[in-house]
Write a structure and sequence with these properties.
Elements: E1 27-32, H1 35-43, E2 54-59, H2 61-69, E3 77-82, H3 89-97, E4 105-110, H4 115-123, E5 128-131, H5 136-148, E6 157-163, H6 170-184, E7 189-193, H7 201-204, H8 213-219, H9 225-231, E8 233-236, E9 239-242, H10 260-269, E10 272-277, H11 283-291, E11 294-299, H12 303-319, E12 327-333, H13 343-350, E13 353-359, H14 362-371, H15 375-378, H16 384-395, H17 415-420
Parallel strand pairs: 1-2, 1-3, 3-4, 4-5, 6-10, 6-11, 7-9, 7-10, 11-12, 12-13
Antiparallel strand pairs: 8-9
Helix pairs in contact: 2-3, 6-16
GO biological process, one term: negative regulation of cell division
GO molecular function: ATP binding; ATP hydrolysis activity
Domain AAA: 157-322
Length: 421
């Protein structure tokens, strides 16, 4: 029996920016002939893509490298600087090849832009030839391409939401932005609830799965894509969850890199990984914030949130010197009888880009929370959904945000607070 109604087909997914691929855990030794080059190479280690890399620099260029590896094993990657004329470089590299392991890769930093030299070096097995002067990010990109593997598929974008103060609503913003990305861009999203003791991702999506992120952490090195797929729960079309157990029968203390492997596997399976990061400060939170693609600070417009958001922003900038500043979302604006700091003034003090301002609506958000629904499910036409969509567009690299308008009832910072801020 056939139906006369046409089949409903979903529009194709919109492209979003892929995540940055981290360089795997390798050792790199650089042999430089100038102190400026050594400083340039050392600056590369501050790039978040190099968070797993062990890098050391030495003097001596190619000759220094040859002498070193006559009696020492070679690392995964050697970077050598040379001042030799182009006709002498291939012969010098042959001497280096004689003392290197077959699996060792080599990047040459030269001072001559010579296409013929480049081709000859590549033919002889040199991984890359980079002409100086260059930049730290260019060196990191060359290293990333070497170790990503040929034809490596793009990986998912990691977007972390963290509250400046407990109760600021970072989780609610994270979950609703994920909903917007899934419904507007039709891209698969995975929400990773990292607050294992008090996480709300399961509650907010009316889910109570038997397994979640805690099982992946307990499995430690045994976790793989197949296991992670089993631990995920489907919350809606294009939305999967790795929920927190939200139990206090044990403490949830982690090493600095505990979540690292799980994140890498998640990035291989979905285009957007939304991290619901708890309002706490420890080694693994700090490390996570330093390595993900986008950081969004969610704050209420008061003085305590301003102080914490400023501290967070300054620390994150120091952890990620080659990256853009964190983004800022002002939440719960317009609370009755509360003096508030204007959004633009708040953002200016924190020195972060303001990508969204969300007004306070106790009935709307309370209903959504109690029903285990997103705001778009409770009130599809409410203007707050436009803000969530604008934030989603921004953090996925689709377009600049124009949804950071000022909700009605917003007050300027009172003079006595302005002096303290």
């Amino acid at each position: 029996m056939t139906s006369d109604q046409p089949a409903v087909t979903e529009e194709p997914a919109a492209e979003i920016a892929s995540g940055a691929r981290l360089v795997p855990r390798i050792t790199i030794q650089a042999f430089c002939e100038h102190s400026q080059t050594a400083q340039l190479v050392e600056s590369a280690v501050h790039d978040r893509r190099m968070s797993k890399v062990a890098l050391t620099t030495h003097n001596g260029g190619i000759d220094g490298a040859v002498e070193t590896y006559k009696s020492n094993p070679t690392p995964n990657l050697i970077i050598v600087e040379t001042n030799l004329p182009p006709e002498d470089v291939p012969q010098a590299m042959e001497r280096l090849a004689e003392v290197c392991d077959a699996t060792t890769r080599v990047i040459v930093l030269g001072h001559v832009n010579d296409v013929q030299l480049y081709r000859e070096l590549i033919r002889s097995g040199i991984s890359e030839y980079i002409v100086l002067p260059t930049t730290g990010p260019q060196i990191v990109s060359a290293i990333t391409e070497l170790f990503a593997g040929e034809g490596a598929a793009p990986i998912g974008r990691t977007i972390g939401f963290v509250s400046a103060k407990g109760g600021a609503g970072g989780s609610t913003v994270a979950h609703n932005v994920a909903w917007a990305i899934a419904t507007v861009l039709r891209q698969d999203c995975l929400i990773l609830d990292m607050d294992l003791a008090f996480g709300t991702a399961g509650l907010n999506f009316n889910q109570d799965p038997p397994h979640g992120v805690a099982d992946a952490l307990v499995a430690s090195q045994k976790v793989d894509q197949t296991m992670l797929d089993r631990l995920m729960s489907k919350a809606a079309n294009h939305i999967n969850l790795l929920t927190a157990p939200a139990t206090l029968d044990r403490t949830w203390d982690f090493e600095e890199r505990e979540f690292e492997q799980i994140l890498e596997i998640c990035q291989k399976s979905v285009p957007a990984v939304i991290l619901d990061i708890p309002h706490s400060w420890n080694a693994w939170v700090r490390h996570t914030l330093s390595t993900i693609d986008e950081v969004v600070i969610v704050a209420e417009p008061d003085l305590a949130n301003l102080r914490n958001a400023k501290n967070l922003a300054d620390t994150i900038k120091a952890l990620r010197p080659t990256e853009a500043a964190p983004h800022l979302v002002i939440n719960k604006q317009g609370l009755p009888r509360r003096p508030e700091i204007a959004g633009t003034e708040f953002a200016s003090s924190v020195e972060c880009g303001l990508i969204g301002q969300i007004g306070f609506d106790a009935a709307l958000f309370g209903t959504a929370a109690n029903n285990g629904q997103m705001i778009a499910e409770v009130a599809a036409n409410n203007k707050v959904n436009e803000v969530y969509r604008a934030i989603g567009m921004h953090v996925t690299g689709r377009q600049p945000t124009h949804g950071a308008g000022k909700p009605a009832g917003l007050m300027k910072l009172p003079s006595f607070l302005k002096k303290r801020a």
